[in-house]
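Record minuted for completeness.

…
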Amino acid sequence: MINRQTNLSSNLVAFCRHLRQHDFTIGPSEEQDALQAIHLVNPFQANENFELCLKATLCRTPFQLKQFPKLYQNYWKELDQAVNSKTTEKEEKAQATQQSQKQPSLQALKSWLHGNKNKETIETATYSDGGFGSVTEQVAFSSQEMKEVFQLVQKLVQKIANRRSRRYKTTKKKAILDIKKSIRKNIVRNGEIVDILYKKKKKDNIKVVLLCDVSRSMELYSRFFIQFMYAFHSLFPKVETFAFATALHHISKELNKTSINKSLQEVINKIPDWSGGTKIGAALQQFNEEFGHKHLTSKTLVIVLSDGWDTDEVDLVGENMKQIHRKALKVLWLNPLAGSGDWQPEVRGMKAALPYVDALLPFHNVDSLRSMVNTMRF
């Protein structure tokens, strides 16, 4: 059921989620464009102006342009008939006792999408606080989108798997001439070179550790992150995945299911603090103490997916990131806010981690994944 929200930004994000369920590739950047367009154009003089405003910012292909009018009319028609999710007595009582968790205004959501430099606690999720149900309700995986994610992750996995070591091994194929071994093998032939030997670099046999932030500030991106983690587990055998909000959870077993929906349900059932607070430093410390000795080596690539907003002891972030960086091959930090043009790593958690990060990259939708795959060198 489509639920009516109490402000424009909430309804717009919900509408974008509705479009994604019909194979529209829409991420935070498109939602940000739509919010900016509404702010600049003020298209409320006539209904068709508002529709054209959204159509111009959310459609990217001829197919989407053709489908948009029907989806738009059906969505807002059903919205008029929907039960207003803010008017029940139970929710009114919850609002009175949980003012700190109310929905953001249009300006607050815009500010958050740009990377707010003053506050680390602005709420961005438009879904209900009903625990697991609120997460499963927002996720709808289209076959087209999953196919594209799998194709891009496959390219990323190939780059990681084909990374070469500094060491060499002998090969029968023509590659790099191994002068020393060739001379040694032919030394008994009075200096005449009969057998020529070649060498090539060994593969590095890299392992990957994924550390994914599933706190409330990341809820807007959880759908895409789940796709990425599931695809990685399906395509790369040497990966261990952990999710964290206020605590760390090892979820590799849950992601190795036959379907993404089954994996999602398993993951949600295991993480009681999904969409809760954020304690990055404490989670990293738990990882180092319980799993670091087993999973961190000179051949481990660590990938952190987080916006860097920490509500706990920030010093723990720097201390534990230093330890991870010292033991691992490389550390990549994928930040969904980094895609904004004027974004700077001003939040305390991100600033504490930055000295121990080999690459900080934007990561929030399929386009950012494609950019990472095309530019990243391992």
Remarks:
- The longest helix spans residues 62-81.
- Residues 8-113 form one domain.
- The beta strands are 164-171, 176-177, 198-203, 207-213, 239-244, 248-250, 300-305, 330-335, 359-362.
- The mean pLDDT is 76.
